[in-house]
Amino acid sequence: MSKNAFSRSLTAAAVACTVSLATTAMTAMPALAQDANTVKIGVLTDMSGPYSAMGGQGSVVAAKMAVEDCLKNECKGMKIEILSADNQNKPDVGVTRAREWLDRDKVEAIADLTNSSVALAVQKLVKEKGGIAMYSGPATGALTTAECATNGFHWMFDTYSQAAGAAAALTKLGNKSWYFVTVDYAFGHSLEKDASDVVKANGGTVVGSVRHPLNASDFSSFLLQ
Q1: Sign of the CA dihedral running 184, 188, 190, 192
Q2: pTM of the full predicted structure?
Q3: CA separation for the pair 197, 205 (Å, rounded)
């Protein structure tokens, strides 16, 4: 299974779980929703940027398919509405839309969130306002450490698992000198830190690092450093 298909499968699984959680909550406390038979889920994803292939419209379709399956079985008689929006890989854009969904549209859960910076901004919002956040796209380890939330669920790999595997193995094989060319936002910062810690713990040395903008196409100046 490709990474893109895997991510979309996780989105579908997250949505199915979200429906189950929201259904349970609404059965116990019907006032949580405008209509006791309605669940609203927002897919907040990258529609046109570098993560649109692993999220984007594919995640929206996966979410709708998960809902169709649910309506045939345990969710019979319910109304489940999928909303979608482009976070543009910008935390301010993502959190503004998430706030509108929670306040105005009475969305019970927000899913996908392919960008780590957007995910962290939304995590802070759901800590404050409630709701459920289901992360099937971002990888920053901060979602389950420093910024952990009781109503935020991370379904994806994280930067620690990537570092503990690849960086540890390569260092043990004798690749002791490391230089990081890192994407300059939350995911890259988290991966660089986790990998650096693993490299040093296994006897390696980090000689330096440089950061590039998200979706950069020319890395020659960074590599020359």
Answers
A1: negative
A2: 0.77
A3: 10
